[in-house]
């Protein structure tokens, strides 16, 4: 039926990141719910007809919130939103004086203890396969509670997504009345119908409503405890106090909803989940008041506490999990923890095999383009990210456990080298797969070949990288072109709707994280000639421009594409810069980071930096101080004080750099304003001043590698108009010669004098003894 009067509402509920929209049609009340779950973004639509329980009529998954909102705005573009909600539509049951099962008990601490014992003895990763129950992420928590309640005659009640009606053991759809019951829950068709309905109409957001945070004590934290991590739900499935293995284990499902073996992992959480997004939970107890089932207030439940969110909870342990282990006084063996974590990691990689195969088989005959339902179903960006993060988590744990067992690092290194994983006929070490996932060489796109999905060889690695880059760049370019109207347009200021629609920050971040870094890794691994045989000249040119790409839609298209010339990297810009120094070391914003170790090396670089990637050194200008920093471990080698008004720093080649008080916003080459320049050389981890130049022209810095008429100038050239002298740097030496009368023209290019990766300086041209831009 066609929609008639359309009304809707948007709001946040219970501090959780989900949204609800309402509209009315001739069919009844429609409720749209959007939320994150297990690395996906979900849109569901429910229809509530008069006198009926809600029905889910739409369920879609998206790889990002942006894609979800784009779909919603397009699909519901003619929908008018309004605040009116017809609450009389919302019933907790279609049948009165009936129930799914009879209640003979009530929840108390004794039953909570029995529930924990039941989960400990009956629940394992094959539990839902054994009983043919389909689950997604949050369903595990709901299903266990309902099954135990059904077995023991306890009440069960949970909040439905959309309507937020309490659905209980006394809630029935009319068609369930004719379904036969049985003494065993897994043969009770009425119960299974009610259970499946609940699991289809609840999610992590309603779990956050139905649960409550607990104190971290041996009485409260037990097997069966829910760990809600924003959009992902896990169940504490084992607490081992023997000291022979990892102490705390968890089981979880994922989206989409289907019968599956659950994923088992040990608890390794480094930080607590914010209170608004979950934490360690128990379920609230149902209570019948005036004939209606409700949930007891969170604050009135046993062991209610928000201590886990406190800033002092972690204390000296440095880890959320270690703080819990310490509080519960659980003995553990650090090597056993690392070994279990490493074994879990291997299983994470192996479990990807079937998903990749299924996706390849299905997408060979179906549409799996990005944005399609099939793409969201079979792509693996979130899973691949978890594999990458698991390596980093183990590294962090080893750093924390070193004092307890100094041999852990060598054990972990050896484990990675010697653990071989056979995938699609190719045997690779765990260390090799670490490189594949950390460098994002493996494709997550279901349209790509199986070899490309695993980066099984050099050809597959380059092919997958080529496809991924072209996809991202193509989408980015479309957004850049669609935002042309924003150039120099104040209506597109940051935070405006137009700015949100046309900025390219998401694409730029992906290009820097999985494009630029991977490009230079491949370049260093295989060399320029191999690189050029696999990647087009146009793509290589674009990849070199990634650090200069600007996300802001208000700047020129040249700057958005990164095709402009820059003479420094200013780290205080809105569009974040990611700069690679070597295989693993990057500058992100104002911090040197080792991505392989997922750790910060050095922070507070200042506004301007130079990069010497050959020697893996950073030269930082901050607060009138130039500092030479080791990019590998953040050690400060040397530093020198400079005058207060120094505001820029330039690389001149052959370990020579200059700092000056020249204003970076000067545009008129005929101005008579002069500035000062101090020249320094870096050698053997020391900074040595070479000379000070005063009253020099601010536009005279030249840096080039290509040949031109005035031969012999190889690195940097300055023109001192006061003394009519040309000062240039060659092979680390400073030379001064009179200005020649002949004309010379330099190619305006951004090629580094020493082929260093990021030393991109401005070129200037001198024609008829005048300095021109």
Keywords:
single chain; disordered N terminus; 24% strand; 19 helices; disordered C terminus; globular; alpha+beta; 773 residues; six-stranded antiparallel sheet; five-stranded antiparallel sheet
Structural class per helix/strand content?
alpha+beta
Beta percentage is 15-25%
Largest sheet, order of strands side by side? Answer: 8-13-9-10-11-12
Question: Can you give the helix content as a percent range?
Answer: 25-40%
How many DSSP helices?
A: 19
Low-confidence parts, pLDDT < 50 over ≥5 residues? 1-16, 566-577, 664-672, 698-725, 739-773
Largest sheet: 6 strands, antiparallel
> What separation lies between the terminal Cα atoms?
66 Å
Described by the principal axes of the CA atoms, the overall outline is globular
Task: Explain what this protein looks like in three dimensions.
This protein is an alpha+beta fold and 773 residues long. 29% of the residues lie in helices and 24% in strands. It contains 19 helices and 36 strands. The chain has a six-stranded antiparallel beta sheet with strand order 8-13-9-10-11-12. The chain has a five-stranded antiparallel beta sheet with strand order 1-2-3-4-5. The protein has a five-stranded antiparallel beta sheet with strand order 18-23-24-25-26, with no helix packed on it. A hairpin with a 2-residue loop joins β24 and β25 (625-630). α17 packs across α18. It starts with 10 loop residues before the first strand and ends with a strand. The model is unreliable at 1-16, 566-577, 664-672, 698-725 and 739-773 (pLDDT under 50).
